[in-house]
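Protocol step 6 of 9: fold each sequence in the batch and record its structure tokens directly after the sequence line. For illustration, a two-sequence batch is reproduced in full.

Sequence one:
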Amino acid sequence: MDNPQALAGVWTCVSGINDGKPLPEAIVKELKLTLTKDQYKTEKGNVVLFDGLYKIDAAQLPKHIDITAPEGEQAGKTSKGIYAIEGDTLRMCYANPDKDRPRDFDSQPGSGATLVVWKRVK
């Protein structure tokens, strides 16, 4: 059973697909995810792209993650997602705030889903 501490740490991006389109390698190399007990922050280089809160439900299959923006244009909106952690690899697939939670780790054109693979920084 995962708890948020299992996810806590700094992660670098291995790959990403947004709405069926692979993220450019140059962007992938710059992406970083920092997770604490309840905070979710993504950065591209020195720029914070998203700083919000998350909660997980590891009893679900696949495991659920909900990411909420506290401010900005997405304030109060929640992106519903799924995640899997295997060793030092974290796979996440999440939908835009107004969409249903993805069922699979997949991002097809028009789905509005984002699939990202992260590697834990030692």
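Sequence two, same batch, same settings:
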Amino acid sequence: MKVIGVIPSRYDSSRFPGKPLIDLDGKSMIQRVYEGAMRSLKIDKLVVATDHQRIVDEVESFGGNVMMTSSSHISGTERCIEVAEKHDDFDVLINIQGDEPLVDVAQIEQLIDAFDEDQVQIATLASKKISSIELSNPNRIKVITDAQSNALYFSRSVIPNNSKQDKIYSYLKHIGLYAFTKQSLNRISSMTSCEIERAESLEQLRWMYHGEKIRVVQTTIETPNIDVPEDVEKVLSLLRK
């Protein structure tokens, strides 16, 4: 099984412009993500997919592979699809988040291992470690699964409904790392949007609506991301430990 890793890296983030190039204790964030992912022995090729020349220059400066992609993409998945169209020699593509400078190789390899089962076409991660605050936070995505660990639904709301307080349920928090077979990416590339996707603002619901199954792999590992400038100090404190 040949695996290509793609790190989507957008320059003009609305909440944190230029985020991939911020300095994190002597290295840019994109360099830290790239070097972290490169520690995986299961990734055969790693590519940064960006929309900005400054990120191209930065990746080339530390010897990484980088590809300029369209500025019209609205999701990291769309950038991955463009990379896949130019790199045909892979079986599985893993979408590595470009705002997690402490990316953990064990997470990446857990996800790749899901494809040892031939029927798995798309895989993602989830964790049972979820606080009551996260449970009610619409920015923390929840997921429920079936008996085969395939996703039944993703939501910003609490699922299943917790109105019966006497019932105990192990809620799952989605961790937005995805991997795809080449065939599933081809199918996704031509899918049209649907109402549940727009209602939740979650692109994975489009794939499920059109018939794709998403294997949910449980992990105990979660690394902090940098979403807004206030997150930088938290990551720096962990880097310096």
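Proceed to step 7 once all outputs are recorded. Observation for sequence two: The radius of gyration is 18 Å.
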